[in-house]
Amino acid sequence: MSITTLLILVCIGIFAGIVSGMIGVGGGLIIVPSLVYILSFNQFGAQGTSIAAMLPPIGVMAAYNYHRADAINWKFALIIAVAFIIGGYIGSKVTISFISESVLKKIFGVLMLIGAIKMIFFSK
User: Between 20 and 30 A from 103 (CA), which of 81, 93, 95, 110?
Assistant: First the structure.
């Protein structure tokens, strides 16, 4: 790995962490497009790398800060986490087995666009 690639990865990680910690969006909204368009990953590789990268930092440091601020409902978080594990397994299996990369990029883009439109035009 070149020093340039290392620096790009560090910048992607820092930016994704800041955005995720500030507004609660998944780092995947930053990490996946960055890996695809800056480092030329394919969509599958970008999504898999993003998921693997988010496990420790989101699960530990961000939650720690919110816990200290008494801003976590642990019962709800546990239920969501268990369901998320199941959903993540099912989603990854379906995606890898049945969805082409070009369709996957479109799905990802549409979900990002819908979220952006809702936030820009329909926020109170």
Answer: 81
